[in-house]
User: Fold this.
Amino acid sequence: MRTRNKLFMVLSLVATAVLMAAPAFATDPVADVGVTGAFTTLQAAVAVTLVAVAGIAILLFAVPYAWRYAKGLFKTVSKG
Assistant:
């Protein structure tokens, strides 16, 4: 069992090294203009989505804490 795991580890390392070295010898451009354009569009869409989700998440988590601490602050000020 251990021999098989070691063999699998060695083979996967060799395969990774070969796959990493293969693009270094490519002479033609690997990325097509259509592919890079699609990824640029996808990147913009993901950024807009993350900003929207982050804004909602900040509101959902910040409002209860602000309410709790403001309530305590107002109680302290009204006593004094």
Remarks:
- Residues 5 and 11 are 10 Å apart (CA to CA).
- The mean pLDDT is 83.
- The two ends are 74 Å apart (CA to CA).
